[in-house]
Amino acid sequence: MLDEVEITKLIVENYMKDLMEYADLDVAIVGAGPSGLTAAYYLATAKKKVAIFDRRLSIGGGMWGGGMMFNKIVVQEDAKHILDDFSINYERFGDYYVADSVHSVTSLAYHATKEGAKIFNLIGAEDVIIKNNRVSGLVINWSVIGELPIDPLSIYAKYVIDATGHESEVIKTLVRKNNIKLNTPTGSIEGEHSMDADTAESVIVDNVKEVYPGIFVTGMAANAVFGSPRMGPIFGGMLLSGKKVADEIIRRLS
Amino acid sequence: MLDEVEITKLIVENYMKDLMEYADLDVAIVGAGPSGLTAAYYLATAKKKVAIFDRRLSIGGGMWGGGMMFNKIVVQEDAKHILDDFSINYERFGDYYVADSVHSVTSLAYHATKEGAKIFNLIGAEDVIIKNNRVSGLVINWSVIGELPIDPLSIYAKYVIDATGHESEVIKTLVRKNNIKLNTPTGSIEGEHSMDADTAESVIVDNVKEVYPGIFVTGMAANAVFGSPRMGPIFGGMLLSGKKVADEIIRRLS
Amino acid sequence: MLDEVEITKLIVENYMKDLMEYADLDVAIVGAGPSGLTAAYYLATAKKKVAIFDRRLSIGGGMWGGGMMFNKIVVQEDAKHILDDFSINYERFGDYYVADSVHSVTSLAYHATKEGAKIFNLIGAEDVIIKNNRVSGLVINWSVIGELPIDPLSIYAKYVIDATGHESEVIKTLVRKNNIKLNTPTGSIEGEHSMDADTAESVIVDNVKEVYPGIFVTGMAANAVFGSPRMGPIFGGMLLSGKKVADEIIRRLS
Amino acid sequence: MLDEVEITKLIVENYMKDLMEYADLDVAIVGAGPSGLTAAYYLATAKKKVAIFDRRLSIGGGMWGGGMMFNKIVVQEDAKHILDDFSINYERFGDYYVADSVHSVTSLAYHATKEGAKIFNLIGAEDVIIKNNRVSGLVINWSVIGELPIDPLSIYAKYVIDATGHESEVIKTLVRKNNIKLNTPTGSIEGEHSMDADTAESVIVDNVKEVYPGIFVTGMAANAVFGSPRMGPIFGGMLLSGKKVADEIIRRLS
Amino acid sequence: MLDEVEITKLIVENYMKDLMEYADLDVAIVGAGPSGLTAAYYLATAKKKVAIFDRRLSIGGGMWGGGMMFNKIVVQEDAKHILDDFSINYERFGDYYVADSVHSVTSLAYHATKEGAKIFNLIGAEDVIIKNNRVSGLVINWSVIGELPIDPLSIYAKYVIDATGHESEVIKTLVRKNNIKLNTPTGSIEGEHSMDADTAESVIVDNVKEVYPGIFVTGMAANAVFGSPRMGPIFGGMLLSGKKVADEIIRRLS
Amino acid sequence: MLDEVEITKLIVENYMKDLMEYADLDVAIVGAGPSGLTAAYYLATAKKKVAIFDRRLSIGGGMWGGGMMFNKIVVQEDAKHILDDFSINYERFGDYYVADSVHSVTSLAYHATKEGAKIFNLIGAEDVIIKNNRVSGLVINWSVIGELPIDPLSIYAKYVIDATGHESEVIKTLVRKNNIKLNTPTGSIEGEHSMDADTAESVIVDNVKEVYPGIFVTGMAANAVFGSPRMGPIFGGMLLSGKKVADEIIRRLS
Amino acid sequence: MLDEVEITKLIVENYMKDLMEYADLDVAIVGAGPSGLTAAYYLATAKKKVAIFDRRLSIGGGMWGGGMMFNKIVVQEDAKHILDDFSINYERFGDYYVADSVHSVTSLAYHATKEGAKIFNLIGAEDVIIKNNRVSGLVINWSVIGELPIDPLSIYAKYVIDATGHESEVIKTLVRKNNIKLNTPTGSIEGEHSMDADTAESVIVDNVKEVYPGIFVTGMAANAVFGSPRMGPIFGGMLLSGKKVADEIIRRLS
Amino acid sequence: MLDEVEITKLIVENYMKDLMEYADLDVAIVGAGPSGLTAAYYLATAKKKVAIFDRRLSIGGGMWGGGMMFNKIVVQEDAKHILDDFSINYERFGDYYVADSVHSVTSLAYHATKEGAKIFNLIGAEDVIIKNNRVSGLVINWSVIGELPIDPLSIYAKYVIDATGHESEVIKTLVRKNNIKLNTPTGSIEGEHSMDADTAESVIVDNVKEVYPGIFVTGMAANAVFGSPRMGPIFGGMLLSGKKVADEIIRRLS
């Protein structure tokens, strides 16, 4: 006999166990797009306690729709090994690899969670916690509350990653609310420039940096913060920057 | 050197290749929720040409949010083998298995597409094609057009599956627009009854039927069409009905 | 030193403890307006396990705004003892007692919760559970999810009270989804008639009944279901019907 | 016999009596959240003529939803005596006290109004009155008018308290419309910094000040105006700052 | 010296005096369009206590915009004397008289109020009061409250006039909520037919009737309730029906 | 020297001249989609006084977007001569002709207006005029007024054509507001059936009929009114039915 | 026999005659609130060709709702003669005169139009015409077009009056789009200060000035442009400033 | 027999062929208003590969509605030859030519596409591509995606024309995202001034310039970027500037 209340309790208790366990993290990632998911996968593989917070019900960011709703993605040669790490089906066209975007994004999320990364969907980061001039955690809230006056909660993290795309939302909040300088040429958010795919892909991995003590940028947020060009309709740099930020933080946590 | 236009062309051409290839299907599934994805997986494994059409950008239906946004799902013993088929991580609590909902839904979608099922996201089914008193295909359109007067296109399918949940949208359109009788006790849509998890799970697999020549129902749509109770916060029946509809159609296509 | 994560955990754990504890209730009330709050107070005073579910963030129903935003309420002589039970300030004008509406509604909620009634705000009842032709619980969900496809959870209750006002939402769902007959003259929802304060106040307490096994109506829902007139801008009947439904259920639970 | 028009008149007349009486106040508080309600309680206890104006139908601000809709609040040791003043039920966990948020907020409002504070819900403060370089009252209007061009009315007050939370709406309007300097380090609104609960709680009571002749800030508005950090999910400072602003104004009015 | 609070009090007190005075009326008119305003004028001239309730801030109904925003109106010969009663400027073209619509509608409202009719703008009629099978008053509320749960107030009237145009809102509510028969051929609302100006103008004055004890219809509501054709872009019948309903009620009140 | 007011006057006067001239028509077409435009072209070529009324700013109906925003249209062999009449560029694929949809729709509108048909954009038909049991004209209004209470104007026409697509808006209004029987099998609107392109194209020209004295249907409205299947993504039948209705009316007007 | 099309033509032709006649004005007033209507009345009385343009369907600005929807207005002694000029009913309270707001605003509009002022409702001023560094007319458009890309028309005027209230919309557009200096202390718009009724009323008439060649400000726009305080809930200054601007322009036009 | 899927394939394949072919252009025009369409026509006539991208379903910009929805346009003598090039019907009034606006805009689009220009409707330009300090293409996306996170695609063009009207959207994006100087007096966008039709028409053709390497402005965008006055309700300058930009680019491409 199925008991509805027993099932209800199992759901609530197991979620709460996760929420309690992940309230004090090695790494908190904001944004479950391709770069954030890739970072989560490699961090989880290295046995770090990592969680992603994403405002949407269904994570994945801008990867679902391919280019202009044509749900295919393209990856260049030097990121092909990441497709292999995630067992993604692809077809080769010269130096480019074409994959299905729904297949690719679900593979990233499936493998990241398979390895132990936790994804909190429907939860956004309203703000950060700053202790002694270092980002030390996130102020989180359900995204569905809209304009309702509902207070947030907080979680701690040794490192925070802003993987919110070209909006770079976490960094924007950090800069807007505090008198601080980022680790960028001008100390501010430089802003994304117009598209130049070749330049953009060549600098994105370099732009993956700790822009203020305790917080890194990755993916499109990295180029936006450092004033590099917008990326073209190609995903290699996104994936590589996700792996780069994971490697960098794994190194520091050791 | 990355060439933006070359990348653009690869995306467009490969999407169009898919669209052309999947315009004449063995099975067209409407709705990429848990039941539709499960069906697609087993159909693809059996080498059937199968595609899912889903109005949302990010498929998965109601599975992302677990129960009340607590992102866990529960599956009972008799559906546990499906969790294993999809390599989903779970924890056992007596006769129940608890899994992470984001992990589970991305696993369903990843493995279905890995096996060759094609998912067309952002595309809904406006209507069906009826030839000689048999559903013979779908009238499809981009969901993002909203109220804009944009005409649809059409695809053929040997079988259509309505996996749109308790709205049973395809069946509703079929009944509303044509003078037909369904293969239900009254010939009409019976409507979902209030919750009774035990009864609901016990009948859902039986309700998976060809309700009109060429079209099956599965998942919550099955119980809604046959006037069975609403299901509780448990996913076994959803997954089993997905497998059932696949098995049934595979048998007929042989 | 204040520890943000410690505080976060206290909030989450204590809420979850409540949610677990109140998943199996003596009485589940839907709607935290004047009638529902009054019922909850008297049930809690009698040591029944009672919880109210209300879709709004800030419970109280239509009592905050008095009449036409003029935040005063009027109570007639025969309900005056309820004002006294709740220590509400009032001024007497002949047979009428005038009180501040904000003061009154917060008194109802304060005293009900003081006595141990639990209020779950932001949670609505999507549906009921029916076992063996008896309402046995509620299907609940966050109200803030709007159109997002998020599944509900369920709780059990020995008795459910529909205190949702003249919409009588729970009864409407019960009738719409199941082939059942209510304990009313026609077996259906009769619908509220136009205003006639005198008649309305005289019948409301009589209308407080178990309209289907396991579910009672109270307050405006009672008059709406039994086809009585709309009440005038006076609250005595609302409060008295809340006490009546509590008394009736206490008697049955004994 | 109940007479609908008699009841109507009692409501209208008693509301108007209040509106006339409270048009010339000792203290006008804008915002009926935890800090404003606490201030109103202690001011009313000291027999000051005090009214709160709040845009919402159902006052209480951000206190209803606890943290992230989990409706519990936490208060630290040094504010515990305020819980006792309001007869709020709580449970102790080390140095923290956990209470139900619905119970707590209705207790604040109930006891404040019990002592004689008047709450005008659905009414917001569009602007202030300035006479001889001193804030001398409020320009008030119904909040429900939306974009309709409806003129406001005005009330006088010896002191105004901005208790509108981190938006500090009254101070913002004061600064935006007049060439004045606030009593802050820079003379302007400093803006809330990111979260640091420990620092925030330690400075909030100090930040309760008369920032311009005739107007005080309290609660989150105090930290926002003085550039202190955002508070964590804990309510001690909110309550203490409400008591502080009351004590300070009582002293001046003597 | 101007005293803001003194002015505030004068506004509030004088409005309340009106509201009290007009809570018990000879005639309550719902809808301040051309027909309702005309009726109010002639009723006030005959010294009847009459008030109009209109949901909009700025009354006048559909008369402001002339035809298709070309702000002119046309009146035929047999209604010309009403233009004269209201001192409206016009120009003659054969049997037709053309006037400015803004000029005309403000003249109707100005002269009606000059004669003592009271207009309550922003207030709609939610329902009627029925005592002993006779409409005995209105249940009124601010229109600006939108979806907020705010209770109404009530007023008494010897006669109610539905002048809400082709929606005939009051009659619709009356019929929907009560099991009654109207004084029409079928006992129900017949519904407006397509346009036929000649027929419509010839029957509208006949359709001005007491359709249920205590309530009359006038203007477009009269034709809608009696199933007559829609009127053309001409206002004679509107004005004449307003005068007719006034004359009829004056006769009965004598 | 350019004189702004002189230009203003030329625009207003010439528009008004058209509006006066076309207030009494041979044929009034509602809906400027492909079928309505085709009809207008052939009627204008035959020197009939014809005007189209369309609610949108930019006429053309559903033809702009091709199929699913892929802006191409397909026409079958038997309608190819209409492409030629309109000098539309196309490419041949077997029995099908493919043309650009933007090119095609602008050609229809350009040539129809070149021949003297007048298009009133932004104007919809709210209702019809009925005199002696015959549709004798339209009740028209600006579509941009939304919910504003603005009265319509009227125009006469010897024949009205409903070319509003599968909504068949004019016929719907005609049936809803009047007790009449259409010239269809059941006397009512039959409703569009699901797609069957072959059947749909074969019956559409037959369905072009005078369904009630004075009013014809064409295009998708014809199939919707007669209960025929939905048309596939092909335009031959649309164009042919437009020509058919023109021919039929020209014959009757002679 | 009534002829719908004849009536249609009378409406269109007479409106167009007005539009042509008033395309070249002595005075164009933007905003038909109390100040603009008063100005129009005195200008028309002096036989000037004057028109008001107002975005709303029903003109009158913020005067309909009295204070906070209590539909009464107050006028002080020195403006009492204007009430008399408009034959407005009032009651005296010391130095204040209280009138009904609906009665007052319709009187202003009725008498202004009676004297020959033309009101174009539903038409706003998008921009001004500037010739040789002088405002020479208005760029006007229907307000109902919303976001639709529809071009405006233009009219000439010897003088323009910005009577748009504290938004001072025309002056804002003038300053934003051109490099000009206003005739104010700083050459810019100073902005309205917080309320001080006494000061506001004493300066408003002085603030009525030609702020740039060809354009005057009046009413609340005058105080907003000159940085004076917001007015209290009293209308004397509004009416007097309307008369002042009329007198000033009449003098110049002589 | 009509085959729905065959027709579907023809539409998709032919659209894709266009999209592939026009991904590398001589000239990319953003905005299909009168100036952009005119430019496209003359470029296509000169055998350049040219495409227009427009966010709307139905292109034509602000030309459909004439002036204030009165659908006529006026053209002055010196642009009359362009009306002739497009075979547009007109009537002469002194130095002005009046044409129907629907006829005119469809003629521009029809003839431009007839000559081989491709119009991509429903597609907007999100950004530009910049290579070596030269605009080298566009970043394009479907306009219907609204807020959905869907990535764009890119196309190359030897020259880009901003024909987006007075918003000059492409230039605004170019300036906002990159640190560049335009070829204008100040190096920035100067902004449109108030209306002065005579001046505006005399400078618009001069303002047609390459404002940054690879990108031209035309139509209202030209005057907006160069700080010239707004144009009056006349279209000559629009058409002439479209021809000018075509001539200029043809010269450079040779």
List the SSEs and their pairings.
Eight copies of one chain form a homooctamer.
Chain A: H1 4-21, E1 24-30, H2 34-45, E2 50-54, E3 72-76, H3 80-85, E4 91-93, E5 96-100, H4 101-114, E6 118-121, E7 123-131, E8 134-142, E9 153-162, H5 169-177, E10 193-195, H6 197-207, E11 210-212, E12 215-217, H7 220-226, E13 229-230, H8 236-253
Parallel strand pairs in A: 1-2, 1-9, 2-6, 9-12, 10-13
Antiparallel strand pairs in A: 3-5, 4-5, 7-8, 8-9, 11-12
Helix pairs in contact in A: 2-4, 2-8, 6-7, 6-8
Short description:
Chain A is of the alpha/beta class and 254 residues long. The first copy, chain A, is 37% helix and 27% strand.
What labels describe this entry?
8-stranded mixed sheet, 254 residues, globular, homooctamer, 8 helices, FAD/NAD(P)-binding domain, 13 strands, 3-stranded antiparallel sheet, alpha/beta
How would you portray this structure in words?
Eight copies of one chain form a homooctamer. The first copy, chain A, is of the alpha/beta class. Chain A has a single domain, classed as FAD/NAD(P)-binding domain, CATH 3.50.50. Helices cover 37% and strands 27% of the residues of chain A. The first copy, chain A, has eight helices and 13 strands. In chain A, the strands form three sheets. In chain A, strands 1, 2, 6, 7, 8, 9, 11 and 12 form an eight-stranded mixed β-sheet that branches. Chain A has a three-stranded antiparallel β-sheet with strand order 3-5-4. In chain A, strand 4 and strand 5 form a beta hairpin. The longest helix of chain A has 18 residues. The mean pLDDT of chain A is 97. Chains in contact: A-B, A-C, A-D, A-H, B-C, B-F, B-H, C-D, C-E, D-E, D-G, E-F, E-G, F-G, F-H, G-H.
